Design the sequence.
């Protein structure tokens, strides 16, 4: 790793070592906190209900736009099925009244999968559709929350679509489901979450029919203590504002599929190697160069390399055209590092001094 204190005078060899480090970690895919064509992000006025209409149906050949542009045949799955919905909010007031509900729906308000978090009695319930009447929810699973809802604290509810009938609901890093199954992929065994009951158990049922996500924390604005202030969705991950890079890595790890004691394992949201890259000797700062998830307009078999703000991890100019280039182009350049303008040496020095004072 290049010493951040002498980066401005780093030799070509030192810079090459940095490039090789980034290449070695090039599957650390992270979509930052911003809105792009492939990723929906919205800071919202504090409210207690929110409806998100999917801009594309899951089988609308999401990735074909890039393939058409570059005249590349499909050769694989181009669907937009494996979405994540990140919902953030805060508790304000007596949390005994706080009930958070969220559901994934097909057309005509037909339920795919929903969940209810009751802060008052520290319980959760999930619901699957009635097989004869999909508009009617039926209790699927239920359990107890390990942690209480606390006035003044933030909360997050994340819904991950893994396959048409396999999902993960997670509230404040607690899995709102239980049970796994053994499946096979190309002859190899895999451990997966259970299939949620559906009137159509085929790959074209369940999440393949999704049109809408709905979240509510109260029936009226005059009751309840849970408020929504941000929604982010797409083939991505997101994290709360205001966290340092090392705090972000810890937050993501707590919600990952890490199979160690204290982690959710197979019930988690993502593999643990999907994370942010911090800046070496100053782990509180994000590295100015990050690898992001491919989108509908990516060159086939490529992703995005983007320049980010070292403090927040967001795109430096909040503009993908200015801040990002294709991974394939980045790797083939003679000197592929292009984020010099995002490297904040003053911030690095200040943060190093602050950390040294803290001991």
Sequence:
């Amino acid at each position: 790793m290049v010493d951040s204190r002498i980066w401005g005078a780093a030799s070509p060899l030192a810079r090459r070592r940095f490039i090789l480090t980034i290449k070695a970690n090039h599957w650390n895919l992270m979509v930052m906190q911003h809105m792009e064509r492939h990723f929906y992000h919205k800071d919202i006025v504090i409210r207690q209900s929110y409806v998100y209409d999917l801009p594309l149906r899951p089988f609308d050949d999401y990735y074909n736009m890039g393939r058409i542009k570059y005249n590349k045949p499909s050769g694989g799955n181009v669907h937009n099925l494996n979405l994540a919905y990140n919902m953030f909010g805060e508790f304000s007031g007596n949390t005994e009244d706080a009930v958070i509900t969220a559901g994934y729906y097909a057309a005509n308000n037909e339920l795919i999968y929903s969940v209810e978090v009751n802060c008052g009695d520290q319980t959760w319930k999930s619901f699957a559709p009635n097989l004869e009447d999909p508009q009617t929810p039926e209790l699927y699973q239920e359990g107890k929350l390990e942690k209480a809802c606390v006035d003044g604290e933030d909360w997050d509810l994340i819904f991950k679509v893994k396959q048409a009938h396999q999902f993960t609901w997670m509230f404040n890093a607690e899995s709102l489901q239980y049970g796994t199954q053994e499946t096979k992929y190309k002859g190899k065994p895999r451990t997966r979450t259970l299939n949620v009951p559906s009137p159509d158990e085929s790959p074209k049922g369940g999440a393949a029919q999704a049109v809408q996500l709905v979240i509510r924390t109260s029936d009226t604005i005059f009751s309840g203590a849970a408020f929504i202030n941000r929604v982010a969705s797409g083939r991505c991950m997101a994290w709360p504002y205001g966290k340092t890079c090392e705090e972000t890595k810890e937050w993501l790890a707590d919600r990952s599929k890490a199979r160690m004691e204290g982690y959710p394992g197979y019930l988690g949201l993502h593999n643990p190697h999907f994370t942010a890259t911090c800046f070496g000797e100053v782990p509180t700062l994000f590295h100015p160069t990050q690898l992001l998830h491919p989108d509908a307009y990516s060159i086939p078999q490529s992703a995005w390399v983007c320049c980010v703000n070292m403090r927040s991890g967001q795109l430096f100019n909040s503009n993908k055209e200015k801040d990002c280039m294709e991974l394939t182009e980045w790797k083939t350049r003679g000197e592929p590092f292009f984020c010099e303008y995002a490297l904040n040496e003053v911030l690095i020095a200040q943060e190093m001094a602050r950390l040294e004072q803290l001991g």
About this structure: The first strand starts at residue 39 and ends at 47. The mean pLDDT is 82. Residues 254 and 263 are 6 Å apart (CA to CA).
